[in-house]
Design a protein that fits this description.
InterPro entries: HD/PDEase_dom, HD_domain. With about 250 residues, the chain is mainly α. Helices cover about 50% and strands about 10% of the residues. The chain is elongated, with a radius of gyration of 23 Å.
């Protein structure tokens, strides 16, 4: 699907509806982006069919591709060539925050061991960790991204979530963010005093060691059932606007 190529997160829903004694199945695509979008997919045989709006009881307005392009020009003052250039740019270089969103949403379905994570799913945990990180370093985009994205690999490969997560965001985050995510499990070993002496010595000597320790503290604190958290969209919007709010 083209949405996969753009790195857009979407949910596919098939709804069974019975109307006037006839049963039909409707296919909907729900897109989570800057604005929520719902698309209804129909069989090609219905291409010329005039559907009726359930709200107005009138035929739904239609537009050909050329008519849609003209509507875009009128509504957004963007000509078709500019629009094509934007789409080509999106295709070659997806928006990194759209990529982050698409990786975070599936964490909602990742249930964790309640012995270590009484708070529940991996998304709820990640948003809690982000909240604590925001209290510690509200101006630090790299640190906040490490906190928010540290467990994204759990929805990809639960057996090696660190490597899977790092691979999925390669090229979209800084070296510092990657390093913090790569070593966040080591922070717990340091806290539990189960890490080897040589490994601990190497980490202590690293320039981002103190940040790693803080990330570990945030990770352990983000395990509270029923805690208040921001939504994914709120968290990503905040991080995206850090430069504007705090300056470079």
């Amino acid at each position: 699907m083209k949405l996969d190529e753009f790195g857009v997160y979407y949910e596919l829903q098939r709804k069974r509806v019975k109307k006037d004694g006839e049963q039909r199945i409707f296919t909907h695509i729900h897109v989570r982006d800057e604005f929520p979008i719902e698309l209804t997919v129909y069989h090609p045989s219905l291409l010329g069919f005039r559907f009726q709006s359930s709200i107005t009881n009138k035929p739904i307005e239609r537009a050909s591709l050329s008519q849609l392009e003209r509507l875009i020009v009128l509504e957004h003052n963007i000509d078709p060539e500019q629009q094509a250039a934007r789409l080509e740019e999106m295709d070659s270089c997806p928006d990194r925050f759209a990529v982050f969103l698409s990786l975070l949403v599936p964490l909602e379905n990742v249930q964790q061991n309640l012995r270590y994570h009484p708070e529940g799913d991996a998304l709820f945990h990640s948003l809690q960790v982000y909240g604590h990180a925001k209290e510690q370093m509200p101006y630090d985009e790299e640190f906040l991204l490490a906190a928010l994205l540290h467990d994204i690999g759990k929805a990809i490969d639960p057996d090696d979530h660190v490597s899977a997560g790092l691979e999925s965001i390669e090229g979209f985050v800084s070296t510092r963010t990657s390093w913090l995510i790569a070593n966040h499990m080591e922070a717990h070993k340091i806290h539990d005093r189960t890490i080897g002496a040589r490994r601990r010595k190497r980490l202590v000597a690293h320039q981002w060691y103190e940040d790693l320790i803080v990330l570990g503290e945030c990770d352990r604190a983000g395990r509270v059932p029923g805690a208040e958290v921001e939504s994914i969209e709120e968290a990503l919007d905040y991080i995206e606007q850090i430069d504007e709010m705090f300056g470079s």
